Amino acid sequence: MVSEKSSLKSTVRVSITNFLDSGSIVAGASGLTLWTQHFGLSSFQVGLLGALSANAFGAALGALIGGPLSDKFGRKLIYTYDMLVYMLGTILVMFAVSFPMLLTGFLITGLAVGAGVPASWTYISETSQNDNRAKNIGVSQFAWSLGPAVIFILGTILAPMGLLGNRILFGLLTVIAFIAWLLQRGLGESKAWQDRKAFEKSSGQKSHPYRTLFSNKTSLKWLFFLIGVYMFWNLVAGAMGFFMPYVYETAGGLSNQEANMLQAVLWILTAVATYFGFAKYGDRANHRIFFFVGAAMAAASWIILTYAGMAQSWSLWAFVALWGISAGIGAQAWYALWATELFPTQFRAGSQGVMFFVVRASAGVWSIIFPAILSSLGFTVAGTFMIGLLLVSLVIGTIWTPKTRGKSLEEITREQYGDEFLTDDEKSKADRDTAAKGKGAGSSVAQQMMNPDK
């Protein structure tokens, strides 16, 4: 069994991927106005940058490739090569002398991000213990929220340097990616994946992961649920991650430095809420109530910004506070946790690849549409769209919250799919975990009523 200390150590290494994911998105976002002015970009070209970046289609394609590769050849394969691809992309952006070169850099960076995310969340979940899985996923989400906080702070400091400052940001991401590559190459392979492959080799029981994924009613149910929770939230978060400074500057009349400062504060709040909220209480609190609170705060933030406007400082800061905290305890953290719990080992990463593809591809389409809505119909209409999307995610996640808290991955797989998807060792572990809970079943009726999702 992996110790808690060893699990946390590997989680920290893997979580750098999440830092680089969000960091690359906001590095592009913080300099979007500068790149637009430098190359004289049209609104379509601006949308295309967002669509093919780590924010959307680039990451979508990367996930569709990286997910099944991780299931077939191991999680470690991704960590051996992924950061090298990421560095190629950031170097191209750093030295971009034309729009095609800039666009290519954004696309390659996005492919690397997409390939790394399913492998990283899967690896973290498979190397965690039953009572610290949400904590470790929370650590990875903390890194994801820390990326924008750091990049926006640096973006604010480097803003007086203009476009050179943004090039420096991508240079820093390149250096961090190199450090991540060195650290992640030393990771061991996931034992769950190794055991699965050993079982398939000895038993001869092999199945096509995607054929099984799309033909099983249970896996289809959770696919639709998780896409519903994550996609509708991510349409808003993705547009914000790439376009929010642009919105502050064009619709709110703020300077580039002021826009970056607001985003820096927002992401600092997200990082704090992730670490002291989701990571601390995700393994203990009622999942349905916890999810609802975060989703409701997200919707409230956009209601205030949309109908109170950006002319008043109180509405801007209320938006920053509500969204910042909600993003730390909201849909992405829950998706990262549930997506690794609700599918068997043999297509755990591949299923995430499919979902991440759908989610980020939809964000890519929205990245092309959103600037057009903003410029032609105005911010109030665009904001109303955002509110509607957030409410859909809230309803889906609150009604169909899965009951996975405190259970091992093997127990969850047995409950959802039966023993068909478990190896002999996994069946034995599921038996032991269930028996251990039976011995400790002396909890009071009141405790069970307070924790109905356990």
UniProtKB/TrEMBL annotation:
Residues 423-454 are annotated as: Disordered. Signal peptide: none annotated. Residues 424-436 have a biased composition (Basic and acidic residues). Residues 445-454 have a biased composition (Polar residues). One of its GO terms (cellular component) is plasma membrane. The chain crosses the membrane at residues 44-65, 77-97, 103-124, 136-158, 164-183, 222-248, 260-278, 290-310, 316-337, 349-373, 379-400. The keyword Transport applies. Residues 7-405 form the Major facilitator superfamily (MFS) profile domain. InterPro entries: MFS, MFS_dom, MFS_trans_sf, Sugar_transporter_CS. One of its GO terms (molecular function) is carboxylic acid transmembrane transporter activity. It is a multi-pass membrane protein. It is found in: Cell membrane. This is MFS transporter. It comes from Lacticaseibacillus chiayiensis.
